[in-house]
Amino acid sequence: MNRLVLISGCSGGGKSTLLAELAARGHTVVEEPGRRIVKQELEGGGAALPWVDMAAFARRAIEMAMADHAAAREQSGWTFFDRGLIDAAAALRHLTGEPILEKLSVAHRYHRRVFLTPPWPEIYTTDPERRHGFDEAVAEYDRLAAIYPTLGLRRRHAAENRGRRPGGFHPRLPLSENEAAVDEIVSACEKRTTGTTAGRRRVSCVPPASHAEARRWTRIRSQAPPRRNAEPASRCTVPARPARRSR
User: Fold this and answer.
1) Using CA atoms, how far apart are residues 186 and 190, in angstroms rounded to an integer?
2) Choice between 54 and 224, residue whose per-residue pLDDT is larger
3) Which of 3, 23, 145, 237 minimizes the number of CB atoms within 10 Å of its CB?
């Protein structure tokens, strides 16, 4: 089983808090390539910064994500990534049109389930390493949400909102709620697929941050490819053709 799990989604959606809880449980976590690159470039006076040279920044993120992936493959336990190669390659394709996304996603595979944190405007903040606004974060999230299914990832919610406040993982939520959400993600990773869905990678999404997000997610999910053996959208039935008589 592939034990390299991507945590992706919108900036400021709670990925760091989720990864901190996973690390506290003894799992290996990998920090977001983008934040590491920004720290290095600011300390060394480099120009591969998203607000200076986004293409150079994306190429460095691809190189770093590939190195992270190779190192994690040598480990036996679960490894959870704060973003990864697909996010970086998607950014470069958006900027330059370079057709590298599909090739890299095949050569460097992750676990079949990818978890997305949706936009959460109530908690979104900027910092010295995250200078883009919320609208830019949502635009990036929308691109990723559209890209993952094209790579064979099946969109599915990680868990229903069972009395928890929506929005995923964040220090403002009670610790017990964050722990329950992490339990569900680990359980989903360990679950094996059976039947017609075997072998497909899946994308799971934490509950949306608001009723508006819920409506948007309903629209996004309605655009996903239909399941096999699914009932037709129309309820009209076509009379069966009579069987031919043998002569």
Assistant:
1) 6
2) 54
3) 237
